[in-house]
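note to self: dont lose this again. the chain is below, predicted strucutre after it. 261 aa total, dont forget to put it in the shared folder this time
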Amino acid sequence: MIRALIADDEQLARQRIRRLLASDVDFHVVDECCDGREAIEAINAHNPDVAFIDVQMPVLDGFAVFESIAAKRMPVVIFTTAYEAYAIKAFEAQALDYLLKPFDESRFLKAVTRVKNEVGRRNLDMEARRLTSQPQFEKCNRVAIKSRGRIVLVDLEDIDYIEAAANYVHIHIGAESHLLRESISSFDGRLSGRGFARIHRSTIVNLSKIVQLQPCPNGEFMVGLRCGKELSLSRTFRDRIEGFLQVTMAAYRTQGRDTKH
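---
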């Protein structure tokens, strides 16, 4: 059930949105508000999934409402107004949609479809974060990843390496790659003591997947994985796999002596 809030100073406008939502069994209207201050109080009280907010309202306008809500309580926002001039500002505020009054039922249904998709995406993100919370992560040796509208559970031992991508990480498993919303530093902390090592500011590797370490002239190494991928080991993170380096260098020196003889 998608919890909806309607904020508009015109009673007829509120009634119309309520009537249109009533035809969809996935929606439940939790409250109606006639000004911006009421809207803020209602959002904080009911924590709705979506808010249909009129731009021009008494006390506080729709944009002031949007700016006053804490990020963790921010619902999906659909701005409604009779004025085209606010469209750019609405999308700059990252509203999901902008309904220009008087909108017909077809246009409203398009907005509703977008709401369902966005709320579904947010719910999957929240479930993935719950499944990958520290206790769950340690207990089952798996990581939950949202992929193509579903949650995929990946065994840690199957991961080849993890690569940073801004506030996300790419988790590489053979030819597959999954995107997870988490910083590489946070992910590195949760993998501590679990057979992984950070070898670069943007790379974590599964130590069991390493098959070779190739010394480079600049004092760094190239890390070769069983999957064929080669990764750079920066000097900053050499201590993370010191054991591998000691074994590799010993073998490297032995090979050099055998070649001389």
